[in-house]
């Protein structure tokens, strides 16, 4: 997965600081801003069931539908649990990261500023 690298490049370019990776936070956010209590996830289009790009494979369709539905349910649960204990949660789609980096950064900055 290269989302991490792509985002780090965006952080550098837009001078976003204060992030950490691999922090022991519930749900394993891709990036964590401890001071601002912002948890950032980059959701891959396939595994997280992006409405635009996730095509369920036609082989073993039932298996994949169940699997991807479970992934989405877990994402929602993780966001909910984190918010409950005071985190701001930002989720970015893989496709937005590639094409709309500036928009992603704006959402992150809003969350960091306390209004996300
Ligand atoms: Zn997508």
Short description:
This protein is α+β, with helices and mostly antiparallel strands. It has helices at residues 3-13, 61-84, 94-99, 101-113, and strands spanning 19-20, 31-33, 38-43, 88-93.
Task: Provide keyphrases for this structure.
116 residues, alpha+beta, 47% helix, 15% strand, binds zinc ion
Description:
- The protein is an alpha+beta fold and 116 residues long.
- The protein has one domain.
- The chain is 47% helix and 15% strand.
- The chain is built from four helices and four strands.
- The chain has helices at 3-13, 61-84, 94-99, 101-113; strands at residues 19-20, 31-33, 38-43, 88-93.
- Strands 1-2-3-4 form a four-stranded mixed beta sheet, sandwiched between helices.
- The longest helix is centred in the middle third of the chain and has 24 residues, at 61-84.
- The model has no long low-confidence stretch (mean pLDDT 93).
- Zinc ion binds at residues 45, 50, 52-53, 93-95.
């Amino acid at each position: 997965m290269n989302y991490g690298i792509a985002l780090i490049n965006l952080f550098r370019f837009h001078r976003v600081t204060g992030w950490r990776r691999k922090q022991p936070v519930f749900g394993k956010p891709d990036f964590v801003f401890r001071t601002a209590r912002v948890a950032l996830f980059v959701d891959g289009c396939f595994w997280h069931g992006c409405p635009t790009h996730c095509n369920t494979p036609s082989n073993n369709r039932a298996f994949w539908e169940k699997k991807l539905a479970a992934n989405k349910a877990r994402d929602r649960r993780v966001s909910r649990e984190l918010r409950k204990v005071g985190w701001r949660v930002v989720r970015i789609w893989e496709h937005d990261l590639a094409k709309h980096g500036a928009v992603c950064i704006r959402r992150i900055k809003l969350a960091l500023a306390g209004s996300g």
